[in-house]
Amino acid sequence: MTRQESFKRRVRARMEKTGEKYGAARRVLIEQTNDRPRPEWESPPETSNEALTGATGRGWNEWREIIDDWGGRQSEHGPMVEYLTREHRVDGWWAQTIAVGYERITGLRLPYQQPDGTFTAGKTKTVSVNADELRAMLYDDGSRADLFPGLETELRSSPTTKVPRIGIGPGVAQIAIQPKDDGRVTVTIAHEKLPAPESVDDWKRYWSEWLDAIDES
Prior knowledge:
The protein has about 220 residues and is α+β, with helices and mostly antiparallel strands. It contains 9 helices and 5 strands; from the N terminus they run ααααααβααββββα.
């Protein structure tokens, strides 16, 4: 019997005992076993235990024990992903997610740190701007200077690319622009290649203020 089948049996047993519906019983069991980080967790992973268990049949504590037994604390990121894909048949995206989460839990990776050792600051907000106009301004040197007063910027992507890449500060920002049905736009920023964890908070704050500014303009 797989761990996922075992977990489903535990959910059904709780349903019979408490009269709860499947979703409610499942949430309680996940919370009981995985929802709170154990004291030895250095930092929590970004993906929730519920999402991970639903996708893979195992929560973070189970995956941590499996990777520990394999020798994860002495492994690099790439071999860990290959191990999860090959031995546990986890698809590529979830294998990456588990490896990153494990590295955060064990302190092998700091929060926001990427496999190459740099850091990424992310920010998302839905704003009242025109998607095409904002994208055009990001691609135009003069308009981009107006969008980022006092900062040197450099276009790092082709004007035909839907997600502009802008060199700014010590890194590169990817700015995804997604129109919504109500006429507003969801702007998602991933500021990559930051050199230190201290940079993350500074740039998250900058992008939060920048999004507020274009929303008010």
